[in-house]
Amino acid sequence: MNEDQFEAAQLAELTERARKLFSGPVTFLKSAPELKFLPDPIVNEVAFAGRSNVGKSSLLNALVGRKAIARTSVTPGRTQELNFFDVGEPLKFRLVDMPGYGFAKAPPKVVETWRRLVRDFLRGRVELKRTLVLIDSRHGVKTVDLEMMKMLDEAAVGYRIVLTKADKIKASELEAVHAATLVEARKHPAAFPVVHITSSEKGLGIEELRAAVLGDAEL
Ligand SMILES: Nc1nc2c(ncn2[C@@H]2O[C@H](COP(=O)(O)OP(=O)(O)O)[C@@H](O)[C@H]2O)c(=O)[nH]1
Ligand SMILES: [Mg+2]
């Protein structure tokens, strides 16, 4: 076996383990509206961040192949907590659904509470191995996303940028937003030089992302 074949075999093995793990027991553990409510840090964690309505709940549901592990909603900006999900039995790692940001009409106080909760979590959580920053394919990276990325850069938490709702735009537009997002990613010290393309609706990129998340959780 040469080096390429070895890498391909490893990826296939990771992908298969990820498929099994994500289709097995995944259960909601708890919501933490403040840091004092965080669960005991007993396993590695991978978090999901993004603007409200970016498709975060839908992506979590697609990853675990279930309709409603995470609540999808058409009312943006409702949740202001960190939501923890246990993956595997026995427990293997945790997924953390972070509160959405960038919703219109949020009072400054709410934004400040969000910022403090997220910043303190990112800075203090040793078990947090990686964050996925979701970006709507139709909109690309916005100012509020840059703020999130800056917080991650400053906390030195590595992150993957994930384009969502890829089914909603034309292939040529997708290509352009992908390229532009890659350029942005390269400017950020903690960002992976890879941009994932996904559609929770069509299942695009989900298998690859499952493997990536498991790989991150095993860091
Ligand atoms: N077409 C399409 N719609 C999506 C996709 N993912 C999410 N949505 C829709 O976008 C809206 C917001 O999704 P949700 O998962 O609740 O976003 P969240 O606020 O980030 O958790 C909902 O109406 C979803 O049905 C996708 O991959 N394709
Ligand atoms: Mg949601």
From TrEMBL:
Cofactor(s) needed for function: Mg(2+)
Residues annotated as domain EngB-type G: 42-219
PROSITE patterns from the UniProt entry: G_ENGB (PS51706)
Keyword annotations: Cell cycle, Cell division, GTP-binding, Magnesium, Metal-binding, Nucleotide-binding, Septation
One GO CC term, this protein: cytosol
Family matches, as InterPro entries: G_ENGB_dom, GTP-bd, GTP-bd_ribosome_bio_YsxC, P-loop_NTPase
Residue spans crossing the bilayer: none
SUPFAM superfamilies: P-loop containing nucleoside triphosphate hydrolases
A GO molecular-function annotation: metal ion binding
GO biological process, one term: division septum assembly
Family matches, as Pfam families: MMR_HSR1
Function in brief: Necessary for normal cell division and for the maintenance of normal septation.
Family assignment from sequence similarity: Belongs to the TRAFAC class TrmE-Era-EngA-EngB-Septin-like GTPase superfamily. EngB GTPase family.
Name of this protein: Probable GTP-binding protein EngB
Origin organism lineage: Bacteria, Pseudomonadati, Pseudomonadota, Alphaproteobacteria, Sphingomonadales
Gene: engB
